[in-house]
Specification:
Blueprint lengths: L1 E12 L2 E12 L3 E5 L6 H9 L6 E6 L8 H5 L2 E3 L12 H9 L8 H7 L15 H13 L5 E5 L7 H16 L3 E6 L2 H7 L2 E6 L2 E6 L1 H7 L4 E7 L5 H5 L6 E5 L2 E6 L1 H14 L3 E8 L2 H14 L1
Helix pairs in contact: 5-6, 8-11
The protein binds adenosine-5'-diphosphate and magnesium ion (MG).
Adenosine-5'-diphosphate binds next to strand 2 and helix 1.
Length: about 300
Amino acid sequence: MPIVEVRGLYKRYGDRTAVDGVSFDVREGEIFGILGSNGAGKTTTAECVSGLRRPDEGTVRVAGLDPIADRVALTELLGAQLQQSELQPKMTVREALELYASFYPHPVDGIALAERLGLGHALGTRFAKLSGGQQQRLFIALALIGAPRVVVLDELTTGLDPRGRRETWELIEEIRASGVTVLLVTHFMEEAQRLCDRVAIFDSGRIEALGTPTELIDRTSTAVVVSFRPSASLDPEALSALPGVLAVRRDHDRLVVEGNDESVEAVLALLAREGISPRRLRITEATLDDAFLDITASEKLT
Ligand SMILES: Nc1ncnc2c1ncn2[C@@H]1O[C@H](COP(=O)(O)OP(=O)(O)O)[C@@H](O)[C@H]1O
Ligand SMILES: [Mg+2]
């Protein structure tokens, strides 16, 4: 049974439709990604799941609870990351942990949590003096302090440097490993590809695709690109005719073949038959970035 169920969700601000009929399920124990460009409706959807906004239409259930009607019960099982402005700059890490622990009936040990998140030495540090990465880790700690079954993390790594981002990714993986379900809102494709079991690609308030990152990548027209410098002259037409090949082009002295796994095998077999070696052979796979561009672009054309 899914732990989060969203059915036919609509949310309008005035005459602007922010969420335009969205349905998805999050399974217990997974990291589910809500992915999309700015203004796609990600935060509004996450806020409806967290009970911070009331849907105009549709239903949301978290472990069977209605986030608005069952608000109090919901806070016991769902942790949402705070926005920056919600913490006093002078509050220390320890004070923030104690304050937020007091909101929940069965909080976890805040000191142990801080140590697990690499904040053990910063307990006496005021919020304003923490680095960007430490602030994000504190927000994660505050989302986890009530021992939730689900956490909602919205653009958690925005503004972090690459190292801080990678550390935060490791933390999110640890959260999942401890059995907590994660709803992760992000516009970073690399982050989603690395972390998410399944992702929903949002565009203009709608879900344009939903699946595992691998499924979405496999759906892109150009899944694999093989390129090489042929040791002897080779007719590009012979490559174009191979199974799975979508396009062949020249890039200086290299031949670039766009296709899929099947076309890579066919290209290598052809070269072997012709006695031509593929010098400086490179095979690159499409990423979620390519899939995202493909999915959102094709929708715009229709
Ligand atoms: N409080 C609000 N009042 C009016 N419009 C809003 C409000 N919040 C969001 N919007 C609009 O709704 C759309 C979706 O916003 P949002 O859910 O924040 O998207 P995302 O998180 O994907 O960037 C955007 O066009 C945004 O401008
Ligand atoms: Mg947002």
